[in-house]
Amino acid sequence: MSGGDEVMESEADARCSATIGALFDALFALLDEWRTAVEQAGEGRSTGDIDALVYALVEPHLTATDPLVIGAGYIAAPEEDPDEALHFAWWLGPLQNNPLLGTTTRPSRLDLASREYTEYLRNYRSFEWYSVSATTRTGHITGPYVDHLCTCDYILTITIPVSGDAAVKGVVGVDVLVRRLEREVLPLLRAAESAIALVSAGGRVILSVSPSLRVGSLVGDEADDTAEAGAAWNALTCAGTELKLLTRRGS
User: Fold this and answer.
1) CA distance 44 to 171
2) Which of 239, 246, 142 has the alpha carbon at shortest distance from 197?
3) Who contacts 35 (Cβ-Cβ below 8 Å, separation ≥6)?
4) pLDDT per residue as tens, the chain (251 positions)
5) What is the pTM of this model?
6) In 133, 167, 176, 191, which residue has its Cα 20 to 30 A from 185's Cα atom?
């Protein structure tokens, strides 16, 4: 492979990485708008008022044509609602043959009271999608993981913290189905010169064009220490995120 070919590969992979970064940057920008709206609602608002506000924010995105977002809303810190230990102002977009809700044509609110197995959510402050954003005061991408609470499918959860005075009031977030995301990302991977997979900050495969890198598998904290069919790969950060684009080295 000539040096010129290597430069062309690098540029193509960089474009792929930048496009993926822009996709997630748009989601973070949307969440930032929602955070501002919830924060500006101020103290003293009833739970019903907050719910109505959040639904007005998320509904257009859940009902858009072929939406990227399958779930969205606001999850309050426990301290915000002492009389209601779990305040999930969270809605799911229209679903087809969902194991829990069947087929729906309008957004459905997550009804925790009807879920017998959700007692574990009492400690949701320890869950990654809540704890990382609340602790670091920055946005975070959790997953991919199987969402047993809502979709029963592989998802990514993207969250940012909502603040009030000096305390974190909760998080706003969206869920994205991995199988929906692949329609956006797989063509980018195929068009790049040497890109083979999109992985999380911890090295878990989100999407891949390699049969040996399955969605949900862990490639390790250091992508350079792993190998596929004898060929190692490099990790390229997707701008504005902690996601990594694996690119084949020496192909």
Assistant:
1) 18
2) 246
3) 160, 161, 162, 172
4) 233 333 344 788 999 999 999 999 999 999 999 999 999 987 778 888 999 999 999 999 999 999 999 999 999 987 655 555 678 899 999 988 877 777 888 999 988 766 665 566 667 888 899 999 999 999 999 999 998 888 889 999 999 999 877 788 999 999 999 999 999 999 999 998 888 999 999 899 999 998 888 898 998 544 444 444 445 778 899 988 999 999 887 65
5) 0.87
6) 133
Task: Compute the residue count for the chain.
Answer: 251
Tokens of 148: 């047993």
| Two tokens, residue 153 | 């499918």
Ramachandran region, residue 196 (left: φ > 0; alpha: ψ -120 to 50; beta: rest): alpha
d(CA 107, CA 110): 10
